[in-house]
Amino acid sequence: MSENKRQPARQSRRSEAYNSFTEHLLARDIRPGQFISQRELVEITDMPLGAIRELIPRLEADGLITTVPQRGMQVAHIDLDLVRNAFQLRIFLELEAARLFTVQASDKMLAKLRKAHEDVLESARENGITPELLEHAQAVDWSLHDTIIDSLDNEIISKIYKVNSVKIRLIRQERFRLTESLLQNVMNDHLAIIAAFEKRDPEQAAICLRQHLENARGRALGLGDR
User: Fold this and answer.
1) Which phi and psi (to 5°) does residue 139 adopt?
2) What is the dihedral angle through the alpha carbons of 70, 73, 75, 80, rounded to the nearest 10 degrees?
């Protein structure tokens, strides 16, 4: 096989290994702060050793693992610096994306977003807040933010956001999760953002989104439910 043919295959294998690593990380099969070996990564991800060796530089560049002298590889641990930095980047990316989304999103897209959130609240009223509803609501939550970023159709921003999103999800798992008491607040925060989209008011959308993200950052920093 020529080098030109090998290259796409190697890139595909690295991407598969990366996706497997992040999936297992978010599934808590790999824990923040854990020391882990290449052999353990092979077992956990079911990827060949060669793919893991090629994966490690990317994980280091993305800040998901760190090589500690004489101790090996350590998975990123959740500390206050990570919380502050990850949320600061998230705010920078999402606020400008929301301004553009406000004027570019179709009415059909906005109606779909509104319905998804209203359905969550209606289900909570009619059936109570179940673990299944909390899981669905979390997916609806992430979907709004992902949709805003994806609408930019910018591969560079999407890659940066994806890496940061993994860190935000880890922070949520370690420091706070969507709970019964938070569900209504989060859905209403989102509906306020969607209302600003529907009015085609970019600045109001950015204001509502900033407040929502600052509330989440406050919870992650241990400042209480806001």
Assistant:
1) -65, -40
2) 40
pLDDT tens digits for 13-43? 778 889 999 999 988 899 999 999 999 999 9
Summarised one tens digit per residue, pLDDT across range 97-147 is 999 999 999 999 999 999 999 999 999 999 999 999 999 999 999 999 999
Residue 30 belongs to some domain of the structure: yes
108 exposure class (CB count in 10 Å sphere: 0-12, 13-18, 19+): exposed
- Distance in angstroms (rounded) separating the CA atoms of residues 220 and 225: 9
Residues 98 and 180 in one domain: yes
Q: Is residue 64 domain-shared with residue 161, that is, in the same domain?
A: no
Amino acid in the structure at residue 142: W
Q: Tell whether 215 and 173 lie within a shared domain.
A: yes
> Is residue 226 in a domain?
no
Question: Within 13 A of 124's CA, how many CA atoms are on the CB side?
Answer: 22
Cα 28 to Cα 43: distance, rounded to the nearest angstrom: 15
Strands lying side by side in the sheet with 72-75 = 35-36, 72-75, 65-68
pLDDT tens digits, 174-196: 766 677 778 999 999 999 999 99
CATH code for position 120: 1.20.120.530
* pTM (predicted TM-score): 0.84
Provide the domain limits for residue 54. Answer: 3-75
DSSP letter at 56? H
Do residues 20 and 56 share a domain? yes
Domain of 15: which CATH number? 1.10.10.10
Q: Residue 34: helix, strand or coil by DSSP?
A: coil
